[in-house]
Specification:
It contains eleven helices and twelve strands. By secondary structure, the chain is of the alpha/beta class. It has one domain: Rossmann fold (3-Layer(aba) Sandwich), CATH 3.40.50.
Length: about 290
């Protein structure tokens, strides 16, 4: 049996679906039984645990062959990232208590840096904290999620353009579909290794905002253009979206645009899903939480 955090999102759900397809038993870690009902119907054992509840998490992590852990997304953290640090601390303590035989942890491209990565800093902290545990741990570092383009679908549909924070718009960056992230995470759970391991993951080819525009245009049946957003507007845009501390989002985007948020040359794998397939899914209305 494998315990899975984040199963109600796209990545965790893909981990679970991959394991079930190979006739493995899973334990779905959810905040309430109602949130895990669809997985219970597919044969999953449910473990109710909040991401800050160390005791409940430890119970969920016990008596399994492996654990998939991830932190919930947080696009509007407080200065100093206290929310993320508390969650990381709870997960680390629970794992130390439960001592599962192996861990696969969802991290991110750029998580090797201790500065200059904005919102990704919580994953640097996560790697450092879990890397101190005695059990084997693999950190999966995917590139930019292709499904982030979900924000671009409606402006592309309505106006034939969308605003891009990734710049210049002709520059390809490492992107990967969340289904590939979940599949590879499941495959890693089924592998055996020792110590601390880093696996980097991107799609079949790198994708630029201009490529995103072309794929959305093909899916929508119209011309679409990616327009760079002036840097001086970024903070005010994020504040208008409800972020009181926009600096981490700005810094993360700057890290991608400068190449600072990149792979460091570890074990690199490639996904199978191309951006055109993701664009067609997003246009069809099947986007969702990562």
């Amino acid at each position: 049996m494998y315990a899975i955090m984040g199963i109600t999102g796209r990545v965790g759900g893909a981990v679970a679906a991959t394991l079930l397809a190979q006739r493995n038993r899973i334990r779905a870690i959810v905040r309430s039984s109602s949130k895990g009902s669809s997985w219970a119907e597919r044969g999953a054992e449910l473990a109710v645990a909040d991401s800050l509840d160390t005791r409940a998490l430890a119970r969920a992590f016990r008596d399994v062959a492996g654990v998939f852990v991830m932190t919930p997304p947080d696009f509007a953290p407080s200065p100093g990232f206290p929310e993320s640090r508390a969650i990381v601390g709870a997960i680390r303590s629970a794992l130390a208590d439960a001592t599962p035989p192996k861990i696969v942890c969802l991290s991110s491209i750029g998580a090797q840096h201790d500065h200059g990565i904005g919102l990704l800093h919580k994953l640097y902290v996560l790697e450092r904290q879990l890397g101190q545990l005695s059990m084997p741990c693999t950190f999966l570092r995917p590139g930019w999620f292709m499904e982030n383009a979900a924000w671009d679908v409606e402006p592309a549909r309505q106006r034939g353009e969308f605003e891009s924070f990734l710049q210049p718009v002709e520059r390809p960056v490492p992107m990967v579909a969340t289904a590939d992230v979940g599949r590879v995470a499941a495959e890693l759970l089924l592998e055996e290794w020792t110590g601390r391991r880093i696996v980097e993951l991107e799609g079949p080819e790198r994708v630029s905002p201009k490529d995103v525009a072309g794929a959305l245009g093909r899916a929508l049946g119209r011309d679409v253009v990616a327009k760079p957003v002036a840097h001086e507007r970024w903070a005010s845009i994020f504040e208008s979206q409800g972020t009181s501390w926009p600096e981490p989002r700005v810094e993360m985007l700057d890290a991608f645009n400068s190449g600072w948020a990149d792979f460091e040359g570890r074990e690199l794998r490639h996904g199978r899903i191309r951006f055109d397939d993701v664009a067609a899914e997003l246009v069809g209305g099947k986007g969702g939480e990562s």
